[in-house]
Amino acid sequence: MAPQTSPTTKPGTSPVLPCAPDLYAVKTMKPHRPTTYATVRFFQPLFTTWLVRMAMTGFCLLLTANLFAQPVEVLYPEGVSEGFVTLTTLDGKKLADGELSQVTTGADRLASRLTFRFADGSLYDEIVTFSQKKHLTLLSYQLTQRGPAFPEPLTISLNGETGQYQVRQHEKAADEKMISGHIDLPPDVYNGMTITVLKNLRGKTGTSIHMVVFNPEPKLYEVDLLRLEEEDTSNRTRKDTKATAAHYILKPRLGWFLGALAALAGRTPPEYHFWLIKKDAPAFVRFEGSLYPRGPSWRIEQISPRVKQARLPEP
Length: 315
Known about the structure:
By secondary structure, this protein is mainly β. Helices cover 13% and strands 43% of the residues.
C-alpha cells in the first residue's frame, strides 16, 4: 500500500502534523521524489487511559486500605524496662553498643528509646511514645542519626495524633535543609514499634500495618508482617537452655505494578527479619535489616550486662 501524502503539506513549507492525538507522522525520504509522510496509527489514547485507570485503581486501593486499617489489640502491656543490645554486621563485626529503655509518661502511655553509639562517633537515637489502652497507638516518633555510619545527618519528628512532621537535614550546618508539613495517617501506623506489634499478634498468623518512610519527604507504605518457620535458639551462658523463636519477615506491600517498576529501577525495598520467643511472656531475640533507606543490612541482638568479679576481703 502506497504511503499517504499529507494534505496539510504545501510545497516549500514545513510539514504540519495531523491534529488527531492518536496519529504520529513518520517522515520517509526517497531520492529525486517529493517528500511524503506516512501516518502510523498508535494507540496512545488507549495506553494513556490504561495508565490513568491503573493510577486511579491504586489510589482507590490505598484509600480503601486506610479506611479499613485496624490498630493492633494489646495482649501484653509493656512496662518500665531497661535492656542492652549490640549492633553488628551480618558476619559478626561489632559496630555499636546499644541501650533500650522504656518509661511511663502517663496512664497507659510509654516512651521507648533505642540508642546506638558507634565506635566512630556516630549516633542513632530513636524515641517512640505510644498508647497501649486497648489498642497500640503511635503518639509521636523522633529519630536522630549522624556521623560517618550514615549518609547524612538527619533529624525526624512525627506527631502520630496530628500527622505533622518535620525533617531536618545537615542540622547546624551551612547547607541545612528543613522540610515540614502534614500527612494523613491511618490508625495502624507503627514507626519504631514493630517488635511491640509482633509481641501482640495472636497465634501463628501475621498482619498488615502502615509505616511512614522519610527519604527525606514522607511516604506512607502498607507493610506485611509474615510469620515464617520456627527456629531453635540457645543460651550463650547455659547451652542446655533452649527455646523456640518465631521468625517474622516485614515486606512492603507494593502490588505487582509498583513492584515491577521498583524491580526495573533497581529500587526493590529490602526485607526485614525479626525473631521473637512467643511464650507466656514474648521476648525479642534478633533483628536483621537496614537502619536507613537503601542502607546495609545489620544485626541487632540482646546482650546481658556482666559485673566484674568482686574481690572478697581477706579473712
